[in-house]
User: Which sequence fits this backbone?
């Protein structure tokens, strides 16, 4: 019978102060987890409101101005407060040092500072929402964003602050990975999750400053009218789009790379098999990170940029499809002749494969210049983006959360209810967003408060899907919270994993390991190492 | 011609549309192939190698260079082909034939204005002859908009600081929706228009009638037509409900409260000024977003609109 260790990082030391001043990476990870899930809840409520308003054409529950604010907040909160920090700060913070066999991250104080900066950024964003809100869309395109009312400067300041949190985390992880690996852990014996976090950190460090500069320019434009984006003063509004996407395209890889890392952990563990193409998966993360800096112009094929620029960006965009494809093929090959255990994390990994493949393939329509012209700025893009970000990143996040939950909190959630939750989320997601591909090909533009009558049936189905999705998330929240107190003790290694976090107790002690671990096998050596699931 | 569209594409209303659709379906079939390949294989493995009791993986092969090369090179070749197909069609979509009829398009929140070479203009209604290449030279008076006609498969951003252009050739008479597809604020989703593709004869007739509009009908009915055709209806209602701008019901003769606290009586001169210089007197509680109609309306048009607003009642004004 498994038991919870009497002294672990969760219960020792006690008190609010010990949490708020903690330097323990696991506690900071938990603080982050609570923070980003709060943001996810808020962004999700806005999403359901959007779908309610779009249930029928015309006014359903709010006016056009409120609607514009709601979709802006849905995007801004989901992106800047949930999905960009997302997997690295919550799951990464908890498991990265454990996987490396380290006591903590390289700079524990910087780690705590990054959480506080995140909270300050979130509070400034809340201030922006309540002091006039924002109706620019999360993309802040000029000249709309320099002319419209509302708290645009406060919102950009919030995003600016959040950028520092992201950079701090990136720097911390890079140094930790370089310096704190357990004896015996060479680069090619690192778990693939670490590789993907490393590639992510590089993008965070290199791209985020560009966003900061762009937002400062936007704020200066609004406050003192420097004219850099203002055509009346010789500026160029399209320049803003270049600056913005120079960050925001790499940023979508900040969002998806860690997700790919999680999937690379889940699939070998639940197939009890060596991962197929370790090096190909590791290198492809860096291939993606590198090319991601060179494709931003594919957001702007109809913005008036030159045809030559569009041609080059289209070509480079197709190149970035290749390393993503390589990963998907390798994961699928890993399943071949494995021993596949249909536990909830693996169900999420399957959802990821299914949905991310659709998300990736629909990217082909958008990378192809002639078809992009018809599809860009329609619901096709909305659907594509959600298939990659929600079908990809959120599914992987949920998979990772269910995978490491017993390690983080020492207890198991209800297997039955978690399967029901997964099924509802998978079903609801597809009903919501598959319909939106067709809305897009039929020509419904995005960010529409109302729509032509021909789009009525598909919008209705999409809204119904959002309720199924919401129900799935409510069930998931309930059984996870319930498991914190009532769940069965999980034991050290419930899934039979080979990475180092499974060698310590669940939950781990503050110092992570009783004795410093020494690596005796690779992360996926299921052919030689003897390990079995214990639940 | 394909007038109903397919299950997933709208009707093909321009010469280029069927080419775009051909490419679209090519990519769709390639995508379906790869989806079935990957997800089909994964599903099959999930079922076939499902764990039943003991853990017994039957293979621990962890790499295969030949396989890696195959699944890198084949997709690479496919995407390079797609790139070239997409690019060559894109160039044809971008380069208008030299003999194209040129119409100037002005976008502003939240309407489209079309200026014809003959000097006439129309709002939210682009009338073009069938079977002739049409080139639109576009610019915006305020923020960025995007000119999108789904049936034509054309879309182009409309910018405040420069011209952009699209062209199309609609071979058959019919009507096609224009939708603004770059977010531009409150009225974004109502910034709609129609492309009317007509025969040569109808086009000539239309040009003539547009040059001398509203002849032979009384001012009030003509004003009612203009209220819709000049898109006042996007922001103003005639039933008293609130929209982006004030309602016209019982407006005439009423005292209007302006921003800054002053008042003005809604007489003919106030209405005229509000149409031609909307920013001069902004009604309290509304934002100064209305574009000027200077140059878009002839004197008789303005008279007609005022007559129409008068006809919507002035009981309240008289009571005060």
Assistant:
């Amino acid at each position: 019978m498994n038991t919870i260790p009497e002294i672990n990082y969760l219960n020792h030391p006690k008190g609010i102060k010990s949490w708020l001043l903690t330097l323990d990476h696991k506690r900071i990870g938990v603080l982050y987890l609570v923070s980003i899930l709060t943001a996810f809840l808020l962004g999700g409520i806005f999403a359901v409101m959007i779908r309610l308003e779009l249930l029928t054409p015309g006014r359903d529950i709010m006016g056009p101005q409120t609607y514009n604010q709601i979709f802006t907040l849905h995007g801004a909160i989901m992106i800047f407060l949930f999905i960009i920090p997302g997997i690295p700060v919550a799951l990464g913070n908890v498991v990265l040092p454990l996987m490396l066999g380290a006591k903590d991250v390289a700079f524990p104080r910087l780690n705590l500072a990054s959480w506080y900066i995140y909270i300050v950024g979130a509070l400034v964003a809340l201030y922006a929402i309540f002091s006039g809100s924002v109706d620019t869309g999360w993309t802040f395109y000029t000249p709309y964003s320099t002319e419209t009312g509302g708290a645009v400067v406060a919102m950009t300041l919030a995003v600016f602050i959040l950028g520092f949190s992201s950079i701090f985390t990136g720097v911390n992880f890079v140094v930790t990975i370089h310096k704190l690996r357990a004896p015996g852990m060479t680069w090619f014996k690192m778990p693939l999750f670490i590789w993907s976090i490393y590639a992510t950190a590089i993008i965070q460090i290199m791209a985020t400053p560009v966003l900061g500069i762009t937002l400062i320019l936007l704020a200066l434009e609004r406050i003192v009218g420097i004219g850099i984006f203002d055509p009346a003063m010789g500026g160029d509004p399209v320049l803003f789009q270049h600056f913005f996407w120079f960050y925001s395209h790499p940023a979508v890889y900040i969002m998806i790379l860690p997700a790919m890392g999680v999937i690379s952990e889940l699939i070998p563990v639940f197939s009890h098999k060596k991962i197929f193409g370790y090096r190909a998966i590791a290198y492809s993360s860096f291939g993606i990170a590198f090319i991601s800096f060179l494709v931003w112009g594919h957001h702007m094929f109809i913005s008036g940029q030159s045809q030559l620029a569009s041609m080059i960006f289209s070509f480079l965009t197709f190149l970035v499809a290749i390393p993503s494809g390589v990963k998907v093929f390798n994961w699928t090959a890993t399943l071949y002749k494995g021993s596949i255990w249909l536990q909830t994390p693996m169900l999420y990994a399957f959802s990821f494969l299914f949905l991310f493949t659709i998300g990736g393939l629909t990217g082909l329509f958008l990378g192809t210049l002639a078809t992009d012209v018809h599809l860009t700025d329609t619901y096709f893009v909305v659907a594509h983006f959600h298939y990659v970000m929600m079908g990809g990143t959120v599914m992987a996040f949920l998979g990772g959360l269910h995978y490491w939950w017993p390690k983080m909190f020492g207890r198991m959630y209800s297997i039955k209810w978690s399967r029901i939750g997964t099924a509802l989320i998978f079903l609801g997601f597809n009903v919501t967003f598959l319909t939106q591909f067709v809305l897009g090909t039929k020509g419904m533009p995005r960010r529409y408060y109302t729509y032509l009558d021909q789009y009525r049936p598909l919008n209705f189905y999409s809204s119904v899907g959002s309720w199924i999705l919401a129900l799935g998330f409510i069930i998931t929240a309930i059984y996870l919270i319930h498991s914190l107190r009532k769940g069965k003790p999980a034991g050290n290694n419930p899934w039979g994993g080979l990475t180092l976090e499974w060698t310590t107790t669940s939950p781990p002690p503050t110092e992570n390991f009783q004795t410093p671990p020494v690596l005796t096998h690779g992360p996926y050596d299921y052919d030689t190492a003897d390990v079995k699931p214990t639940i | 011609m394909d007038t109903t569209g397919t299950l997933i594409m709208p009707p093909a209303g321009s010469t280029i549309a069927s080419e775009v659709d051909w490419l679209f379906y090519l990519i769709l079939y390639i995508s379906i192939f790869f989806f079935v390949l990957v997800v089909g294989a994964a599903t099959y493995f999930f079922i076939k190698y499902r764990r039943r009791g003991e853990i017994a993986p039957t293979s621990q092969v962890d790499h295969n260079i030949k396989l890696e090369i195959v699944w890198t090179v084949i997709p690479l070749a496919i995407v390079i082909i797609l790139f070239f197909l997409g690019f060559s069609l894109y160039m044809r979509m971008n380069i208008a034939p030299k003999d194209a009829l040129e119409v100037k398009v002005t976008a502003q929140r939240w309407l489209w204005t079309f200026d014809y070479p003959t000097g006439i203009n129309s709002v939210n209604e682009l009338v073009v002859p069938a079977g002739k290449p049409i080139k639109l030279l576009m610019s915006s008076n305020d923020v960025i908009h995007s000119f999108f006609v789904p049936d034509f498969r054309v879309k182009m951003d409309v910018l405040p600081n420069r011209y952009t252009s699209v062209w199309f050739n609609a071979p058959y008479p019919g009507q096609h929706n224009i939708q603004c597809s770059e977010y531009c604020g409150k009225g974004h989703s109502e910034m709609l228009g129609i492309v009317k593709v007509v025969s040569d004869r109808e086009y000539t007739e239309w040009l003539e009638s547009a040059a001398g509009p509203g002849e032979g009908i009384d001012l009030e009915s003509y004003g009612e037509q203009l209220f819709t055709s000049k898109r006042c209806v996007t922001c103003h209602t005639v039933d008293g409900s609130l929209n982006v701008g004030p309602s016209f019901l019982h407006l005439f003769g009423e005292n209007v409260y302006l921003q800054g606290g002053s008042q003005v009586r809604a007489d003919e001169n106030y209405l005229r000024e509000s149409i031609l210089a909307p920013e001069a007197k902004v009604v309290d509680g509304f934002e100064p977003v209305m574009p000027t109609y200077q140059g878009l309306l002839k004197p008789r048009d303005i008279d007609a609109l005022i007559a129409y607003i008068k006809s919507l009642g002035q009981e309240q004004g008289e009571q005060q």
Q: What stands out?
A: The longest helix of chain A spans residues 237-271.
